[in-house]
Design brief:
A hairpin with a 2-residue loop joins strand 5 and strand 6. By secondary structure, this protein is α+β, with helices and mostly antiparallel strands. Helices cover 48% and strands 13% of the residues. It is built from 10 helices and 7 strands. The termini are close together. Helix 1 packs parallel to helix 4, helix 1 crosses helix 9 and helix 9 crosses helix 10. A 5-stranded mixed β-sheet has the order 6-5-1-4-7, covered by helices on one side. The chain folds into 2 domains: 103 residues, Glutaredoxin (3-Layer(aba) Sandwich); 108 residues, Glutathione S-transferase Yfyf (Class Pi), Chain A, domain 2. The structure holds glutathione.
Amino acid sequence: MIIVHTTELEYPWGTLRSTNASKVKVMLEEKGLSYRVERMRPGDLWKKPPEFLARHPLGKVPYIEDGDRLIYDSTVINEYLEDQYSVPSLMPTAPLDRAAVRMFENYCDEAILVGDLPGLWMPYWSPPEKRDLERMEKSRAGLRNRALPFIERSIAEKAYLCGEFTLADIGYMCLAMVLEVDAFDLGAYPRTASYLERLRARPSYLAISPATSLVESAGRP
Ligand SMILES: N[C@@H](CCC(=O)N[C@@H](CS)C(=O)NCC(=O)O)C(=O)O
């Protein structure tokens, strides 16, 4: 059984999860693999005790254990899972198509998960009165200026970014998760709104949905 190390906490406004680790949970669900979620002690993600740094030298989540192997970084983990557990495949076979998947994945990581999303997501880990509303609004504006027009153009009339559901779409499920908690108005981006709804309708989304409790999303036997 694969063990996913991550941060997840329940609040009155939803179950909040590490976005990067959510990429891995969705991948495991899509692959139908058996896994268990190991949640880090609150605070350790920031304190970075030596035993944590020994497992992930950058002191981040996620990292996974697959037997005696330890693998970190959501992109590396998901590529590993694709290579090691190739059925069902979430990667096309032609080199240029594979490059297209990786470019969408890279865009999501850089422009969204590291770019504009943390400024909107991190405040939700605090009670409403302690949130930096200005920072949240700036992040929403950042998404409106950059990632949302990009998705709107890229999805066009397709169901998923590369036609079929692939590894390219998985990071965007984490965007769907955050925008659900934020009740973000996507009225100006109708194709993106439908795309994110399509992602939320996949059974794998239940593992990261803000409506799913910690108990219900602790893994799959
Ligand atoms: N490139 C890494 C980024 C991981 C990352 O930044 N994770 C966040 C949680 S979503 C984290 O651990 N933050 C704590 C820190 O940066 O010290 C990945 O894809 O796994």
